[in-house]
Amino acid sequence: MLELLFLLLPVAMGYGWFMGRNSVKQNDQSAKQALSIKYSTGLNYLLSNQQDKAIDYLLEALKVEDDSVEAHFAMANLFRKRGELDRALKVHEHLVHQKHLPNKDKQQAIFELGKDFLSAGLYDRAEVMFLKLLKNTPYSLKSLHFLMQIYQSTKDWQQGIDLKKVIVKTSDKKLLHTLANFYCELASLALEKDEFIEVIELLEHALIQDPNSCRANWLMAQIYQNHQQYNEACQCYQDIYQQDKEFFPDVIENMHLCYQEIDEEDVFYKFIRKVYDETGSTSALLKYLSHLEKKYGVQKSKEFILFALKRRPTIRGFKHFVKMQMAVPDIENSAESHAENLEVIKELIASYLNVKQRYSCRSCGFNSSTHYWSCPSCRDWEQLKPFRGLEGE
User: Fold this and answer.
1) pLDDT tens, 126-146?
2) What are the sequence ranges of the domains in the chain?
3) DSSP string, 41-52
4) What 8-state DSSP symbol labels residue 369?
5) 2 contacts: CB under 8 Å, gap ≥ 6
6) Is the pTM of this model over 0.85?
7) To which H or E segment does residue 338 belong?
8) Which of 90, 109, 128, 338 could cross-link with 95 by S-S, CB 3.0 to 4.6 Å?
9) Is the CB of residue 199 less than 8 Å from the CB of residue 187?
């Protein structure tokens, strides 16, 4: 209540100045008296906590002049912050309908009204407001961001893609990244229908908009792998590593299958060793250990994992080391006891890992045990990455 009263003080001063400036005009006296009565009535309603009636009277009493527009915006923003969207809408709609309002203020009113509609979940009406601002206005870029947010919420992927020309002109990386993901969404739908050619075309468009979209290459790799084009799939997986090293651990197994199909496992393990050396990834470490054990024996594999755990200890790495110890006990005479103790340790670590989340959103911190391309919390694209450190990669 006090916030609103202080907010209206400059409006009252402006109103008094307006009345004084025009007091010499006798013909306007009756109109001014009527406005004064409405203004006083509005304040009385405000003081008695009847805010809806207060707003109606105040909006009618306060003629929107250049010197009072900011007060109107401030009052509406206060309502919006307090969650009173219906009142914010009323003020902004009042401003939009003022025919004499300067173009700059009119555009701001339309933009704020669009934000009100968006906050209220009225996506169709918010879309109309933001579309009005796309042509050469100070709000073009912000409106584009809100429009893409609307289309993402309503899953109108094609609607967002229809704005491609406008988005490309902005050269805004976030918008281009979002646009690439819209193409990926359509590609996923086409993939479900086995429309191979259309999927490839859509993914190529995605990579044109955002060459660093690992999601596009991930879908491309799936297509190639499903159609037994393993060389192409392997190249896509290598591209994913260059685009997003944090996401790469999730594709290691599929990448291995493709290299097995073309009988080039040595090339694969050489690449995985490079990945481990550069990133310290636990998934890459475990995959490389299986190669060492198969080619050089358990002892060589043990030596390598001990070195790796000293370099970068992780729970998953420790669990694997315990598993190796259980498979080949060091002391024959105490093998049963040794294995039993290690089994307990292994189960404790496994239980701990089962209750921990695997992915975290780099934008908002949302945690999940399942990977999502679009964060369920902040809706940002491709920001859920595997945890790093002791509990993760």
Assistant:
1) 999 999 999 878 999 999 999
2) 314-350, 356-393
3) HHHHHHHTT-HH
4) S
5) none
6) no
7) helix 335-355
8) 109
9) yes
In whole angstroms, give the CA distance from residue 361 to residue 5. Answer: 41
Place 392 in a pLDDT band, splitting at 50, 70 and 90.
Answer: low
**Dmax over Cα atoms in the chain, in whole Å?**
114
| Amino acid letter for position 326 | M
The letter for the amino acid at 185 is: E
Joined together, the tokens standing for residue 153 give: 């919420």
Structure tokens at 78: 């206060």
- In DSSP terms, 381 is beta-bridged to 374
Walk across the sheet containing 384-386 and list its strands. 367-368, 359-361, 384-386
> In whole numbers, what is the pLDDT of the chain averaged over residues?
82
* pLDDT, position 26: 47
Cα 155 from Cα 166, distance rounded (Å) = 20
Helix or strand holding residue 61 (H, E)? helix 51-61
- How many angstroms separate the Cα of 71 from the Cα of each of 11, 125, 130, 157? 6, 25, 23, 38
Q: Which two tokens stand for residue 300?
A: 């060589």
- Quote the Cα angle for 212-377-380, to 5°: 20
Q: Which amino acid is at 276?
A: Y
DSSP per position, 224-238: HHHTT-HHHHHHHHH
| Burial bucket for residue 38 (CB in 10 Å: 0-12, 13-18, 19+) | middle
- What is the rounded average pLDDT of the residues 16-22? 51
Helix H or strand E segment including 321: helix 315-327
**Structural tokens at position 44:** 């009385």
Instruction: Quick: pLDDT tens for 322-331.
Output: 888 777 655 4
Length of the chain: 393
Q: Is the dihedral of CA 182, 188, 189, 194 positive or negative?
A: positive
